[in-house]
Amino acid sequence: SLQQPHGVANEGVVVRRAHFHDFMHGVHQRIGKLRSEGSRAGVSAVVDETAAGGPAVLCFDEFQITNIADATLIMPLFSELFTREVVLVATSNRPPTDLYKGGLNRELHMPVFVGALERRLHVHYLDAPVDYRAKMRKAEDDAGASSASSDFILEALGVS
């Protein structure tokens, strides 16, 4: 949910963590609700709610754009977030240049957005020598999900 903080960091900084798809679903729902109430407010009102309560940090898991509705809304949304100096942290399986790759009308929405990301954010590529997700899936297949997860965590921490 946009209004449910995951936790509060030091000095009153509100930290919100969300799966990106869930976050965008909430944005679309809130904009729809505002419009159904006759309001012309949109992205700005949603960002106002998101950034309420002081400096905000948004942590997105699985940052990816998979549909035209998100692609259309993403630049106005992030422009508002940047204007309010919301700190963004995201994980993704793809570089910014590959967001919405092959998507409908990608050329209308993504070049400006990708440029903004590259100017405003620091992108760090984490290329680990071991794909722990693949190891975990294999361990679950081999041993059953109940014990494999804890074994995977111990191995990832180097405590096997």
Structure description:
- By secondary structure, this protein is of the alpha/beta class.
- Helix content is 51%, strand content 11%.
- It is built from 6 helices and 4 strands, in the order ββααβαβααα.
- The longest helix is centred in the first third of the chain and has 17 residues, at 20-36.
- The radius of gyration is 19 Å and the shape is globular.
- The two termini are 37 Å apart.
Helix fraction bin: 40-55%
C-alpha Rg, in Å? 19 Å
The span between the termini is 37 Å
Describe the strand arrangement of the main beta sheet, using strand numbers: 1-2-3-4
**How many runs of DSSP E, i.e. beta strands?**
4
String of helices and strands = EEHHEHEHHH
Uncertain spans: 1-9, 147-152
Shape label? globular
Helix- and strand-based class? alpha/beta
Mean pLDDT over all positions? 81
Tally of DSSP helical segments: 6
What characterizes the major β-sheet? 4 strands, mixed
What is the strand content? 5-15%
Secondary structure layout:
Blueprint: E1 7-8, E2 14-19, H1 20-36, H2 43-51, E3 56-61, H3 68-83, E4 87-90, H4 106-120, H5 132-143, H6 145-156
Parallel strand pairs: 2-3, 3-4
Antiparallel strand pairs: 1-2
Short description:
The chain is of the alpha/beta class.
List the main descriptive attributes of the protein structure presented here.
160 residues, alpha/beta, four-stranded mixed beta sheet, 6 helices, disordered N terminus
